[in-house]
Write a structure and sequence with these properties.
This protein is mainly alpha-helical and 351 residues long. The protein is built from 13 helices and six strands. Helix content is 50%, strand content 7%. The longest helix has 30 residues. The chain binds adenosine-5'-triphosphate (ATP) and magnesium ion.
């Protein structure tokens, strides 16, 4: 879709400088991405974006993780068990290898200057542009609300503020985020044209699994009751995979277009085992869906065992998690206040 979008295999060297007109460009490339605090992270997050985040962090990039608590309200009336979900996400990050001494983890609601960027940004996009966003349309279709709120239509511009407040160069996300990244680039370009160079053009980074399906055959999502959580027990994982939608053809093949559900389980197995999905499918041959599910379960449980053990350890000390959030919020506030000052200066606001 986007010319600036890239996949893992086509990623330029992580340390390569990215051209940006921003005055305050960070010394090393910066990544921003995040997850709504609506439930525990699942396999879609892990293979869609989390692995890339950790890899890039380990290659020396500066990782910012936003937990967008305000965006919980896009598709529901109240944010349920917010603190528990926020802390749960931090535990998932730590378990997956996010290094708290290098990463900045923060919540939307704790960074007022970030949120202020939303106002000028909204003036740079038309109502028609917001209305034709395909991801927003899909989310409205799955929403629990009787009426669609203004936040649902405007949250992609809010997400532009998340990405641009810290002048991120690279945004590792799943495929559903591509329209939002396109909008972010549009907002950055229009702001720079109108007021002078402040923002970079962030690139999208997709993984080999940019749209992992859930047990019902639609996008695996925290809010759709179709996900396999990273923290799930081995038994729950087995039960969920056993109940996953497949088809009646005995011969297993890897054909994402023609056989999306079977191919999804084949891909999941391949990703856990570090192999090609074609090889996994060939090996399963005429084994049928039951064999595929048994192999997928074994692969997922084996791959996630160390992560699950680490998560259980971190979960013993939630005060550590709260301390990380306090430090992350403080750093995000410093960065946001600097960017807001630049924005106000560019726009000619009185100092
Ligand atoms: P919710 O149902 O609350 O919207 P979600 O499961 O869609 O939750 P998000 O917090 O909206 O998760 O998304 C966080 C990040 O994870 C985004 O970058 C998104 O693209 C990515 N992601 C989410 N689900 C998948 C998936 N099934 N496959 C690949 N990437 C995904
Ligand atoms: Mg989502």
């Amino acid at each position: 879709m986007s010319t600036t979008s890239t996949t893992t295999s086509h990623l330029p060297p992580a340390a390569a400088p990215v051209a940006t007109p921003a005055k305050d460009r960070p010394a090393k490339n910066r990544i921003l991405t995040g997850d709504r605090p609506t439930g525990p992270l699942h396999l879609g997050h892990y293979f869609g974006t989390l692995q890339n985040r950790v890899r890039l962090q380990n290659e020396g990039m500066d990782l910012f993780l936003v937990i967008p608590d305000y965006q919980v309200l896009t598709d529901r009336d109240v944010a349920d068990r917010l603190t528990e979900h926020v802390e749960g996400l931090v535990l998932d990050y730590l378990a997956a290898g996010v290094d708290p001494s290098r990463a900045t983890i923060f919540t939307h609601s704790a960074v007022p200057a970030l949120n202020q960027l939303l106002l000028p940004f909204l003036s740079l996009v038309s109502v028609a542009e917001l209305g034709r966003n395909p991801t927003v349309k899909d989310e409205i279709a799955h929403s629990r609300q009787a009426a669609v709120s203004g936040l649902m239509f405007t949250y992609p511009a809010h997400q532009a503020a998340d990405i641009l407040f810290c002048k991120a160069d690279l945004v590792p996300v799943g495929k559903d985020q591509e329209p939002h990244l396109e909008l972010t680039r549009t907002i950055a370009r229009r702001f720079n044209e109108r007021y002078g160079p402040v923002f970079p053009q962030p690139r999208t980074l997709l993984s080999e699994a940019p749209l992992l399906l859930g047990t019902d055959g639609t996008k695996m999502s925290k809010s759709r009751g179709n996900s396999i959580a990273l923290r799930a027990s081995s038994d729950d994982t087995a039960r969920l995979i056993r109940g996953a939608k497949t088809d009646a053809v005995r011969r297993i093949s890897y054909d994402p277009e023609g056989r999306p559900e079977v191919s999804n389980l084949v891909l999941l197995t391949a990703l856990c085992q570090g192999r090609s999905p074609y090889e996994v499918a060939a090996e399963l041959g005429d084994g049928g869906a039951a064999r595929l599910k048994a192999v997928a379960t074994e692969a997922v449980n084996a791959h996630l065992a160390p992560l699950r053990a680490r998560r259980a350890e971190y979960a013993q000390d939630l005060s550590y998690v709260r301390g990380l959030l306090r430090a992350g919020n403080a750093r995000a506030n410093e960065v946001a206040e600097r960017t807001l000052a630049e924005v106000r200066e560019a726009m000619g606001s009185p100092s």
